[in-house]
Amino acid sequence: MAKYSNPFRALRNKNYTLFWIPQSVSLMGTWIDTTLRGWVAVNLFSEDKAAGFIGLIAFLKGFPTVLLSPVSGVLIDWFGPREVLFLTQLADAINATIMAYLVSKNILTPVQLLLLSVLMGISGSFYLPSRNTFIGNIVPKSHLPNALALHSMIFNVARMVGPSIAGFVVKYYGLTFGFIVNALSFVPLLVVLPTIPLKYEHISPSKRAFIADLKDGIQFTVKNKTLLVTFASLMIYAFFGMPYSMLMQAFAKSAVRTDLVGYGLIMGSMGLGAFIGALVAGGMEPEQVISVREEYLILLIGASTLATSIFPSIAYVMSFINGAAQTIFFNITNSRTQFVSPGNMRGRTMSLYALISTGASPTGTFIFGLIGNVIGIKNAYTILAFVMISYFFLRRTIVNHKIKSNN
Questions:
Q1: For residue 182, which phi and psi values (nearest 5 degrees)?
Q2: CA distances from 217 to 30, 141, 144, 193, 222 (A)
Q3: Are 319 and 406 in contact (CB under 8 A)?
Q4: Transmembrane stretches, by residue range (predicted)?
Q5: Closest CA relative to residue 192, chosen from 17, 12, 13
Q6: Three-state DSSP class for residue 186
Q7: Fewer CB atoms near the end CB (10 Å): N or C, the chain?
Q8: Is 282 in contact with 146 (CB distance < 8 Å)?
Q9: How would residue 400 be classed by pLDDT, with cut points 50, 70 and 90?
Q10: How many independent structural domains does the chain possess?
Q11: What residue numbers bound the domain in which 340 lies?
């Protein structure tokens, strides 16, 4: 029988708790902001162009990651994840403040929204690898999968509750107040983060060589078969799986035929599923987490996406399944990447993880947003589903072939 442990055990670590609580506040504000920006984008254009514009926003938020994630990994290994993480949160707080101002003055244009998305993409390029590396250095390795699961938990609680709060805010207080809430949500983390002690294996100034350090990180990843297989699955999910949620505003409006409240319920269902998934992953021991076959989770995500495309009205249920599988998938791949990476290389491997995760997902969303404009958003979801299901059978065929070859 599989061993199942306390899913909140990482909170026994004082430093992790100091980070986890204000990060929860920040993530709640972020999901309110994400919902409101998406809804602003949907209503800036006609229904037949909305999906493409949302996809463009997602692409512009993710494209800087392609260029800057490898850079961020080197800088994290040079200066430490805490310092880089602090600057990303400060930049996002300023971005939210600008958004609040433009909306309050009723002068927000599509170009301004796209520009702010690019700036968010730049900060996001440094946020994911610095955050994950930071968590990996304030908890013991035995608690790392649990700490990552708890972060997924608060992320998905925010995703579950944030859209509903956003709908309430718009109805009773207006868009401006929602963006102000997000700007203020960064304050607790910005205050607490510098006080958390951190022991990190920095690359000493005398040994720093940017190109050589960048090359070393890439070579380490390419030569490690475990990382290559993990990153292949991550690429498939990020490119073909993430558009499910990132295009959901357009899907909810044109296929489900619902409003912001209905969209909030769909995303709330996805957040609830992710919360349950985080509880499951958080209760597993490290060796159990990293041994799970992630291609089965991709199959489950593909199947739920296919069901949604065929029967849009069951998006409320399928989103729950999708969210649970997604959280376990990310916990597995994230934990495995950090476990096989030495301390002085972790920033660079996690930056490549972020490059795939946050670079492929907006690219896929942009492409399938445009496809949705041409053939309909439901048909775009069908294509996404078939690719993920096909990957599962391809992966299993390759594995079975290797087993027979070894015998």
A1: -65, -45
A2: 31, 21, 21, 27, 9
A3: no
A4: 52-72, 84-104, 111-128, 148-170, 177-196, 227-248, 260-284, 296-318, 352-371, 377-394
A5: 17
A6: coil
A7: N
A8: yes
A9: low
A10: 1
A11: 9-196+207-406
Cα–Cα dist 338/144, whole Å: 9
Tell whether the torsion through CA atoms of 8, 12, 15 and 18 is positive or negative. Answer: positive
**∠ CA 247-24-39, rounded to 5°:** 30
* Pairwise CA distance, residues 392 & 126, whole Å: 31
Q: Comparing 3-12, 172-181, 215-224, 331-340, which segment has the lowest mean pLDDT?
A: 3-12
- Pairwise CA distance, residues 16 & 18, whole Å: 5
Beta-bridge partner residues of 4: 284
Q: Say whether 196 sits in a helix, a strand or coil.
A: coil
* Axis crossing angle, helix 47-79 with helix 81-104, rounded to the nearest 10: 150
Residue 1 has pLDDT above 60, yes or no: no
Tell me, what's the pLDDT at 311?
Answer: 93
Query: What secondary structure letter does DSSP report for 94?
Result: H
Mean pLDDT throughout 35-49?
70
Confirm if 84 and 69 have CB atoms less than 8 A apart: no
Q: Closest by alpha carbon to 348, among 186, 217, 199? A: 217
pLDDT digit string (tens) for 147-197?
Answer: 887 887 787 778 767 777 887 877 788 888 888 988 999 999 999 999 988
Q: What does the DSSP 8-state code read for residue 367?
A: H
Global pTM value: 0.70
Alpha-carbon span 129 to 136, nearest angstrom: 10
Which of 264, 274, 281 is closest to 320 using CA atoms? Answer: 274
Residue 36 lies in a domain: yes
The SS3 call for residue 79 is helix
Report the DSSP beta bridge partners of residue 284. 4
**Which alpha helices (DSSP H) does 45-109 contain, by range?**
47-79, 81-104
Give the CATH number, domain containing residue 69.
1.20.1250.20
- Report yes or no on 3 lying in a domain: no
The residue type found at 321 is: I
Q: Among 62, 68, 103, which Cα is nearest to 84's?
A: 68
2-16, 53-67, 280-294, 320-334: which is most confident: 320-334
Strand partners, 203: none
Is residue 360 one of the residues assigned to a domain?
yes
